[in-house]
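Please go through the sequence line and token line underneath and see whether the fold suits the sequence. See right below:
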Amino acid sequence: SVYFFFFNDTATTEIYTEQIVGSVRCVQETGINAEYMGIINHKPRTQIQNLSMDRHTKFYDLQELETYGNQMIKLVCDLYQKQDQYPVHPNIKPGSVRQQLPEHPPQQGESFEDIIKDTEKLIFPNMTHWQHPKLFGYYPATISHAAVIADIFNNGFLSPGITWYCCPAAAELENHVMDWAAEFLHLPECFKFSSTGGGQICTTTCDAIMLTVHASKQLKMKEHGITNADPRITKLVAYISDMGYHFEKPIRMKDIPHVRKIPYKWNPEKADFELDPEDYRRAIEQDIKDGLIPFWVGINMGTTSTCQVDPIAEISAICKANGLFVCVDAAYLGAAQVCEEYEYLWKQLDNVDYYIVNFAKWMLSGLNGTMFWVKNRHEYISTFMAEDPEYLRSLNVDGYEIVNYKDWQSGQGHRFAALRVWYVIRKFGVEGLQENIRNVVSLSKYFESLLRSDKRFQIIGTVKSGLVCYRSVSYTHLT
């Protein structure tokens, strides 16, 4: 394929025309098979003339796509139905899969029959089956048929999603589903594109957290007039609880020199962990006294190990009063905000700058599905903006504020994950999402009742979601 860049003005186009035409001649003279060629037309509105374009090609064979695509869908359905006939985790040693693969890649293409057969016989049995009915480890990684169907379309018409112009439907649908989700999760209005905020769908929760650390660091440096060469850059301080270990990697990747871990404390009377907001106040005040610069705090809404909820309202109020940016990681439990009985969660978000929920965990969307909202989108994207080359420049059209997701992240390309979330929301509706959450919670409550009726076990913490933490009373060496 030969790619052409077209520019907003005739003069720029004229400058590059000879270079582009020269490249086309080079392709022709070297004998490279170019199925799609173009002719540059020296007119104010540059046009490409298609010489020939047969979409039924070796590298996108529509007949094979239909035949083997249907075969793959049937295979997925068949294997999904009999997952319980396989162990959750394969009984193999590290390296076992690689030993069954050829040492060198094939020089000639192989048939889909053989590739799909190996998928069934080699790949599926050696997977850890996260959709298995007996998987109780880690955390949920939910998927639905709606999400799978959406990904078929998405992969069929791959869009890099760099700017609005790269795929207007992708950009605007993501804007819209972020506002939809903000509405049914009862987030403050300021997190919507219709207000000062907005959001994007990130690959993982940690990726989103790193973006918040980056933006907060840059804004705090600007506030204090700190450059990268300024030694004061070594005075920045971040704050997390000692159960917020997932915050640590993003903080390290952004070279934050000081991290304060505020400890949870065990309350034996309540058989639960507690976090004192005043510990944050004391730590921040001491750091300021020592000449350091507190700038960011990571707060948990549902820790991975025990689903603890930090006292969000109290901590965020203390931190905002001292000029910190507040990030809430609600990767798992935040999905429960779709249900009215979890009002106590969304009522604590008034002082939050960044809010994260992973729809791949409890919202049936699969990866990537990390919904990441910001309270002030213009302030946020100002920390990522760089001088764009001509081909990436885009202007607001008729007063409409275009969202270019390259300006929201470190990379350029942005996956069309919004299509999957859109399919899930439309297929099940808000009531369906609520039903899914409540079904899981009811199962966990039933399991909790079984444990409480058995004196051999003790419940650890309050069961507020699909996670039940317990231990053996008599055989503590087993837990």
Summary: The CA atoms of residues 226 and 233 lie 7 Å apart. The chain has 14 helices and eleven strands. Residues 1-52 have pLDDT under 50 and may be disordered. The first strand starts at residue 198 and ends at 202.
